[in-house]
Write a structure and sequence with these properties.
Blueprint (H helix, E strand, L loop, with lengths): L4 E10 L5 E9 L4 E5 L28 H15 L7 H12 L9 H19 L3 H6 L8 E8 L12 E5 L6 H21 L19 H14 L9 E5 L6 E2 L2 E3 L7 E2 L1 H14 L2 E5 L7 H11 L4 E4 L7 H10 L4 E4 L1 H4 L2 H13 L3 E5 L9 H9 L3 E3 L6 H17 L13
Parallel strand pairs: 4-14, 6-10, 10-11, 11-12, 12-13, 13-14
Antiparallel strand pairs: 1-2, 2-3, 4-5, 5-6, 7-8, 8-9
Length: 426
């Protein structure tokens, strides 16, 4: 007999920042049961799909998600039960139609994505396949390079650093496991360096350290010191990637870096600053180097830097094919960040990845600052063959759950696993 969805339901759980999020459960007629948990962002683009919150100040400061849970249980579940779980596109389109809004504001992207992920996982189990093989097919063998966040600033930390994330990238590692080791060893060397200088070794939302530093460039300097202290060669073995999250310090058409003593800059001047930093430090990637609405500035930014490094758009695209298509047409960047909860379904996320690949763009699969122990993202990154993953630092269990799942996948694939430096700019 054909396997169908028997039940769908949801509950309110807590994410890594102690804020409510949605966990959805799916059971099938063959006895398969599973769940999926939805991440939540702090630095969010204005065009992201809506994360439905209750707004009740008496519960979690208004951040409760009981309305989203009710929408799963009372609106989505009756329509989805009885359907074939392998019909992912059909089920996701059904939920999009049930919502009926452009940004999923009626049912909530958190409600819809929870069900979308749970159905995909249930279908994979029922098919006898690991999730990455179910979503990506026989060619899903590429393990992504771990871009590990080791210094936090901006909205992810209460310090003097304007730029939100400084990441290390194991450019010269032969395998994922070795790349993870390169990163972890550098992370621990950085902790010792900061400690020896009397700087804070407390961590931000994504597990990176959050010290008070004299400038945004000093973060790169201390990272290079940590790379060398770990016994690696900057640029050859380990490189640097930066996500300034520039929308967070963009006001009235200007970029305010006064928090770190950098003054007020226009788009061209900020790109000048990045040019200096790229010449001085082994920086291979800039994500959201300019603000989400600075399309003209981004075009100049990519024209000047895009042949040297990877220029990634996050808030400007929000994993939405409408904005990615414009970016491809206008050469706004040469890569896009991909986040499941920015768009709200597995199907739409896959469509965004395929659009990027068709244009010759790279894709950077990403977690959110509010994460859970769910490792869906790791399987998804392998399924998409992106070659690049942001999953946070070498501490905090919700980050390591993704890294440890990738270790399992690499071991499972054995000699078939592919791992290579994806940061070559063409």
């Amino acid at each position: 007999m054909k396997t169908v969805i028997n039940s769908i339901n949801a509950m309110e759980i807590l994410d890594s920042r102690g804020n409510p999020t949605v966990r959805a459960f799916c059971s099938l007629s063959d006895g398969t049961t599973c769940s999926a948990s939805v991440p939540s962002g702090a630095s969010t683009g204005e065009n992201e799909a809506v994360e439905l919150r209750d707004g009740d100040p008496k519960r979690y400061g208004g951040k409760g998600v009981l309305r989203a849970v009710e929408n799963v249980n009372n609106i989505i579940a009756p329509e989805v039960c009885g359907l074939d779980p392998t019909r992912q596109v059909e089920i996701d389109r059904l939920m999009i139609d049930l919502d009926g809004t452009e940004n999923k504001s009626k049912l909530g992207a958190n409600a819809i994505l929870g069900v979308s992920m749970a159905v995909a996982r249930a279908a994979a189990i029922a098919s006898g396949l690991p999730l990455y093989k179910y979503l990506g097919g026989a060619e899903a063998v590429r393990i992504p390079t771990p871009m590990m966040n080791i210094i936090n600033g901006g909205k992810h930390a209460d310090n003097s650093v304007d730029f939100q994330e400084y990441m290390i990238v194991p450019m010269g590692a032969p395998t994922f496991a070795e790349g993870l080791r390169y990163n972890a060893e550098t992370f621990h060397c950085l902790k010792k360096i900061l400690h020896d200088r009397g700087l804070a070794t407390s961590v931000g939302d994504e597990g990176g350290f959050a010290p008070y530093l004299s400038s945004n460039q000093e973060a790169c300097k201390v990272i290079v010191e940590a790379i060398e202290a770990a016994g690696y060669v900057p640029e050859e073995d380990i490189g640097i990637a930066i996500d300034p999250a520039s929308t967070s310090f963009w006001h009235d058409g200007k970029y305010d870096l006064s928090n770190s003593g950098g003054g007020i800059l226009n788009s061209t001047e900020l790109t000048d600053l990045y040019t200096v930093m790229i010449a001085k430090y082994p920086i291979f990637l800039l994500e959201d180097g300019l603000a989400e609405n600075d399309w003209d500035g981004f075009k100049e930014h990519t024209r000047r830097l895009g042949k040297q490094i990877e220029i990634v758009g996050d808030d400007i695209y929000v994993t939405n094919t409408k904005y990615i298509e414009r970016g491809i047409s206008e050469k706004t960047t040469n890569a896009a960040l991909i986040k499941l909860n920015q768009i709200g379904t597995v199907t739409e996320t896959i469509e965004a990845v395929r659009m990027c690949h068709s244009a010759g763009w790279k894709c950077l699969i990403s977690h959110r600052s509010g994460e859970t122990e769910d490792s869906f993202l790791a399987d998804f990154a392998v399924a998409m063959g992106s070659g690049q993953l942001k999953s946070g630092s070498a501490c905090r269990g919700e980050r390591l759950a993704k890294y440890n799942r990738l270790l399992e996948i690499e071991a499972e694939l054995g000699p078939a696993a592919e791992f290579e430096n994806p940061f070559t700019v063409h």
